[in-house]
Design a protein that fits this description.
The protein has three helices and four strands, in the order E-E-E-H-E-H-H. It is α+β, with helices and mostly antiparallel strands and 102 residues long. It has a single domain, classed as Ribosomal Protein S5, domain 2. Strands 1-2-4-3 form a four-stranded mixed β-sheet, with helices on one face. Helix 1 links the parallel strand 3 and strand 4. Helix 1 crosses helix 2. The radius of gyration is 13 Å and the shape is globular. The relative contact order is 0.28. Oligomer with a subunit composition of (alpha,beta,gamma)6. Keywords: Cytoplasm, Lyase, Phosphoprotein. Covalent carrier of the coenzyme of citrate lyase.
């Protein structure tokens, strides 16, 4: 999926994550993470964001994530929502998303 415009999903409230996406001219996924639990879970948060983007075939994107202790399911849901918004899609096929092997 191609990110065509800036998009975001989530909040900076406790137990949530704000995912902001920017289209990128360079190949690859670049993730900038600001997290209150960076030392304990930073690597896992980045991996979940990257895994979700790869499942949606997003290849060129800059991600700015502000995490406040979100669970993996929240990270995934916020990333999916931001991708669909950035791609200009109006509906999310959640049945496809739920069929992923996590």
């Amino acid at each position: 999926m191609e990110i065509k415009q800036n998009a975001s999903a989530g909040t900076t409230e406790s137990s949530d994550i704000l995912i902001m996406l920017d289209p990128s001219e360079t190949n690859g996924i670049q993730i900038d993470l600001n997290s209150s639990v960076e030392k304990q879970f930073g690597r896992q948060i980045r991996a979940k964001i990257r895994e979700t983007l790869e499942k949606l075939d997003v290849t060129n994107v800059k991600v700015n994530a502000v995490d406040k202790g979100a669970l993996d399911c929240t990270i995934e849901a916020r990333t999916v929502a931001a991708v669909y918004r950035g791609a200009g899609e109006e509906t999310i096929d959640w049945q496809v998303i739920h069929s992923w092997k996590l």
